[in-house]
């Protein structure tokens, strides 16, 4: 068992530690709150001039999931799995039904999609499963090639848009497929209509699942059902925090540290990314004074102008 040591007095390294940790926490908050309205939801402060280019922050995703890292999403997972396997949503115009997961950044959309994608019921139901990361910049050629390569497990060297659409239609023809489009930003219906035209060759029962921050992006794709993902519950947030802050050994931590940890978790407002990252940052420091410094720091506060908005 890992022993958690506690210091009751400040050390010579405390001040630099506090400064560095506060700086890193601010970076975490900025990264998990790239949209202004999301910052208000989280009740965090946006420092003037620190907004980063989102394309530098975001990175590609894969369908692999570490199940030990996932808390409190079983009901959401089952709801989506049932929607994917249900015959509801089939239409006479052969359009592929779309299921969407909508939430602000850091809420765990991609993580939930991975849970669904790797569920045994889903694996057994669909003949073909494809996971593709889309991102903010919508590139029709890159996206189509990525889907083809995911389905065929082979490199696609086509460059012509029409040839790519024909090839995608061919590789999906007659197959019941699940296509996951992770991190959709595009709100232009023309782009979706072009892609959809190549998907209708799939067999009845095929589905598209998307993750996005934007309800409008889900709406233009005709997404039904529409799951708006909420924050984690209090107990799930605490379990996630303990896994990273105490390496799962909560019993080895002092009552005072646990009490402070609970208060820090409360300030995370149910956002899994915040809980996980803060737990990881605090795991290397077990001074109660330093934890309390983080808890009482003004990094959590809204500016007065934001508070009134």
UniProtKB/TrEMBL annotation:
<feature type="domain" description="NB-ARC">
    <location>
        <begin position="74"/>
        <end position="246"/>
    </location>
</feature>
<dbReference type="InterPro" id="IPR042197">
    <property type="entry name" value="Apaf_helical"/>
</dbReference>
<dbReference type="GO" id="GO:0006952">
    <property type="term" value="P:defense response"/>
</dbReference>
<dbReference type="InterPro" id="IPR002182">
    <property type="entry name" value="NB-ARC"/>
</dbReference>
<keyword id="KW-0611">Plant defense</keyword>
<dbReference type="InterPro" id="IPR027417">
    <property type="entry name" value="P-loop_NTPase"/>
</dbReference>
<protein>
    <submittedName>
        <fullName>Disease resistance protein RGA2-like isoform X2</fullName>
    </submittedName>
</protein>
<dbReference type="GO" id="GO:0043531">
    <property type="term" value="F:ADP binding"/>
</dbReference>
<dbReference type="Pfam" id="PF00931">
    <property type="entry name" value="NB-ARC"/>
</dbReference>
């Amino acid at each position: 068992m890992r022993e958690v040591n506690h210091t009751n007095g400040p050390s010579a390294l405390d001040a630099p530690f506090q400064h560095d940790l506060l700086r890193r926490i601010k970076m975490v908050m900025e990264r998990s709150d790239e949209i202004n309205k999301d910052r208000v939801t989280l009740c965090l402060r946006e420092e003037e001039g620190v907004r980063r280019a989102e394309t530098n922050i975001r990175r590609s995703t894969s369908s692999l999931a570490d199940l030990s890292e996932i808390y409190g999403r079983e009901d959401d997972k089952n709801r989506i799995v049932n929607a994917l396997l249900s015959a509801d949503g089939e239409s006479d115009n052969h359009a592929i039904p779309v299921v969407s997961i909508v939430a602000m950044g850091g809420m765990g959309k991609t993580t939930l999609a991975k849970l669904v994608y790797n569920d045994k019921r889903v694996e057994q139901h669909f003949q073909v499963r494809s996971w593709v990361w889309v991102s903010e910049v919508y590139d029709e050629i890159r996206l189509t090639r990525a889907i083809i390569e995911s389905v065929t497990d082979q490199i696609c060297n086509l460059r012509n848009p029409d040839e790519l659409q024909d090839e995608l239609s061919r590789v999906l023809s007659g197959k019941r497929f699940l296509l996951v489009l992770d991190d959709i930003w595009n709100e232009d219906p023309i782009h979706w209509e072009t892609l959809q035209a190549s998907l209708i060759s799939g067999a009845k029962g095929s589905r598209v699942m998307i993750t996005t921050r934007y309800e409008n992006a889900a709406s233009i794709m005709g997404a039904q059902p529409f799951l708006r993902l909420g924050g984690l519950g209090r107990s799930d947030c605490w379990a996630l925090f303990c896994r990273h802050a105490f390496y799962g050994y909560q019993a080895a931590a002092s009552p005072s540290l646990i009490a402070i940890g609970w208060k820090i978790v409360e300030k995370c407002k149910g956002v899994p990314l915040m809980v996980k990252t803060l737990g990881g940052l605090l795991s290397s420091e077990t001074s109660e004074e330093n934890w309390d410094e983080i808890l009482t720091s003004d990094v959590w506060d809204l500016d007065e102008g934001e508070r009134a908005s």
